[in-house]
Please model this.
Amino acid sequence: MCDAADLAVGDIVLEIGPGTGILTREILLRGCQVIAIEADLRAIAELEESFASEITSGQLTIHHHDARQLDLAQFGLVDQQFKVVANIPYYISGLLFRLCLESDIQPTTLVFLVQKEVAQRIARDPKSSILSMSVRVFGDPSYIGTIKRGHFTPPPAVDSAIIAVYNISRDRLQSTSTKDFFDALHVAFGQKRKQLAGNWRQLFDKQRVVQELAILDLPATTRAEDLSIDQFLTLLAQVSR
Model:
């Protein structure tokens, strides 16, 4: 995970849910400054004992905080001047992607350990989804590697995977607002088996959508899952004019 984040001495790293500090220790050994948020007071007590010198020196700062209420502005982070590296709770994976990527204060790189199927859906599935487009609109996801369930004690019911998101920015949203993008995205996938022109008729003239699809050399029967993020954004910009 640290290699995937390309950590270097002096990097500022936000770690979500450090637990007992196994990943924390490696990040610190890379010479990074770590801002850790942890909801479990027992884990915080263990971290404070294990990393007393790093806390004293200011290399590690620990905040008692619920990741589900994550607001990156709370921790003194500066836009595009930090990285996120975390082994996150699988049941809030989608939420944490959203909170980290949609924030006004964005990291440059994000590396998560997530359920394997989630990583595949974002980075490897040839069909698009709300999740994959929600990530791709802000950065470039990469499937780093699979972590088999046997590497954990106790072993979980599923395999895990490391996923990285690089080149995080708002550059792809220059032609539309974040709100308009997500409104259009959710409507486009509202009925997965329905064609995009049919789903989008709630927002746009259906014939206009068909015409703009043709300009992109795409059939009128195109579904949202058939589009890349760039095709989706181009089409949205055209039909919104």
Remarks:
- The mean pLDDT is 95.
- The longest helix spans residues 229-240.
